[in-house]
Structure formats: structure tokens, C-alpha cells
Amino acid sequence: MTADQLKSLIAAGLACDHIDLEGDGRHWFATIVSAEFAGMRPIARHQRVYATLGERMKTDEVHALSMKTFTPAEWSARGAG
Asked: What superkingdom does the record give (predicted)?
């Protein structure tokens, strides 16, 4: 899987303001900014992203995905975006 493919899958299931991906095709690190994360704890945010990938996580198409998740306000407060 390419970074563009993974980015498209996440964006199709989650309204994102920003997605940055790095990885080797199976192991990925993502920075994801979405207003949908407002009021969610970190684990719930991660579960929300995993839900966008569905079976791809279970079939090992995406072996590992570590991520940092932010709301737009959190992202702006970091001086990003």
C-alpha cells in the first residue's frame, strides 16, 4: 500500500484537515488533524482512525499504524497548519 492510498482511505472515512504519512508500505506513522476528534480521548481517536481502515488492519495489509491525532485547535496551538 502506498502513502497516497492509505491517506485516501483515512480521508474517505474521516473528515480531516491535515494528514501526514510516513512509512514503508506496511509500517506507518501518521499525523492526523480532524474536528471529529473534539471531546475524544486519545484511544477513542485512534479507534476512530482504525475504523476507517476496517479489514485492512485485520488482514495485515496495514501491519502497523502509529499516530498523533489533533483537533484543529490543538494543531494550531502547536504552531502548525
From this structure: Bacteria
**pTM for the structure as a whole:** 0.89
Query: How many domains are there within the chain?
Result: 1
* Per-residue pLDDT, 81: 58
Q: What is the pLDDT of residue 42?
A: 94
Cα–chain-centroid distance for residue 25?
15
Place of cell 476528534: 37
Instruction: Find the CATH number of the domain harbouring 39.
Output: 3.30.300.90
Is 32 within 8 Å of 46 (Cβ atoms)? Answer: no
